[in-house]
Design brief:
It comes from Finegoldia magna. The chain has about 400 residues and is of the alpha/beta class. The protein folds into two domains: about 140 residues, Aspartate Aminotransferase, domain 1, CATH 3.90.1150; about 220 residues, Aspartate Aminotransferase, domain 2 (3-Layer(aba) Sandwich), CATH 3.40.640.10. It is built from 14 helices and 13 strands. It has a seven-stranded mixed beta sheet with strand order 2-8-7-6-5-3-4, with helices on both faces. The radius of gyration is 21 Å and the shape is globular. The termini are far apart.
Length: about 400
């Protein structure tokens, strides 16, 4: 008898879609793939060069479980200076990606049957992470701005509520919370003794206004906030698998204890790469961010031209497109619509049901502008065909 817990974890609903994409590619068919959740840029050269230097010198030993002290110091300096979060290096635990940092945090904060509030639409791994840690995911609806607010939180909070996962900027919508919205949520969490896991992995990809970390808004809010971040999105370092958490020393001590029995330290070379990314940042990073903004602007202009609804993405590199108006006798949900777009129009999107909202599909613009232009033209053809 294998594990009941792992068997209860939902497999990805996009596996079937991925198999079809690969099949079409093997047949020599060009697929305009907007499902990818990683930058299409190369890791900046200055990061690669420094990592190779350490590899050539054989500096690939174990590190402290919580990470190389210099890296943790650099992260804390970054959080203090750029995010205005009060912390020091002992607040930081470096992990194998932001994913592990979130799971570590859930293990450290929750007990069996504690409830974790997850605003929808949500990143698909959050509910499954809760199941792994024996707590209960509670999915929240969104307000007219596609965000969670205190009125919604009050409706769903009870004596078992332990924490709130806040993804800002959001995957899949790209929405960003304002200072006023964050302060309201943070004060509510303090008042109700609810922890906040603030997933800020897309913070650098904020296009229209300055990003604000919820942990920066007051000492009381910072005390109950675990800030999650990493290097994958801003520095095109997805394969390095490097993330971190910032929390009180009490929480970070538990996270370190847990991690010591699972992965020990994050990959040493990845930590060197992360340290280099922060200390010696080049203009390559800002150029990449500028290119994402340019792509975003082009896509929203075309969707406006197509007269199709979407959630305006102020950050990240996704756009959530409303498609339920195209449901009919043969297309009943977002997965079937994505299959239709792929099989007949050679464009691949992620169905919104994966993120808890079946009325939408997610488009990633982490791909070339040439592919974006042609892919949107194919989407337009689909829209026109539905009106015939």
């Amino acid at each position: 008898m294998l594990s009941n817990k792992i068997n209860s974890i939902n497999p990805s609903l996009t596996l079937e879609l991925s198999a079809k994409i690969n099949k079409l590619k093997k047949e020599g068919i060009k697929v305009y793939n907007f499902t990818v959740g990683e930058p299409d840029f190369k890791t900046p050269r200055y990061i690669i060069d420094k990592t190779l230097e350490y590899l050539d010198n054989g500096i690939v030993r174990y590190t402290d479980t919580s990470g190389i002290p210099d890296l943790r110091e650099e992260i804390s300096l970054k959080l203090n200076k750029c995010n205005h979060i009060k912390c020091d290096k002992d607040s930081i635990v470096v992990s194998t990606g932001a994913k592990q940092a979130i799971v570590n945090s859930l293990f450290a904060l929750t007990n069996p049957n504690d409830e974790v509030l997850i605003p929808s639409p949500y990143w698909l791994s959050y509910p499954e992470m809760c199941k792994l840690t024996d707590c209960k995911p509670v999915i929240l609806p969104y307000n007219e701005n596609f965000k969670v607010d205190v009125d919604i939180l009050n409706q769903y909070k009870n004596s078992n509520t332990k924490c709130l996962i806040l993804n800002n900027p959001s995957n899949p919508t790209g929405v960003i919370y304002s200072e006023e919205e964050l302060l309201s949520i943070g004060n509510w969490a303090v008042k109700n003794n609810v922890y906040i896991i603030s997933d800020e992995i897309y913070e650098r990809l904020s296009y229209d206004k300055e990003f604000i970390s919820i942990g920066s808004l007051s000492d009381e809010i910072n005390e109950i906030t675990i800030t999650i971040n990493g290097f994958s999105k801003a520095y095109a370092m997805t394969g390095f698998r490097l993330g971190y958490s910032c929390s009180t020393k009490e929480v970070s001590k538990l996270i370190k204890r847990l991690q010591g029995h699972i992965t020990s330290n994050a990959n040493t070379l990845s930590q060197i790469a992360g340290l280099t990314a922060l200390k010696d940042e080049s203009d390559e990073v800002e150029k990449m961010i500028g290119e994402f903004k340019s792509r975003r602007d082009y896509i929203v202009s075309k969707l406006d031209e197509f007269d199709i609804e979407y959630i305006y993405p102020a950050g990240a590199f996704y756009i959530f497109i409303k498609i339920d108006q195209f449901y009919n006798s043969t297309i009943n949900n977002s997965l079937e619509l994505c299959n239709e777009l792929l099989s007949k129009y050679n464009v691949a999107f992620v169905p919104g049901i994966v993120f808890g909202d079946d009325k939408y599909i997610r488009m990633s613009y982490a791909t070339s502008i040439e592919d974006i232009k042609q892919g949107l033209e194919n989407l337009k053809n689909f829209i026109v065909d539905q009106k015939i």
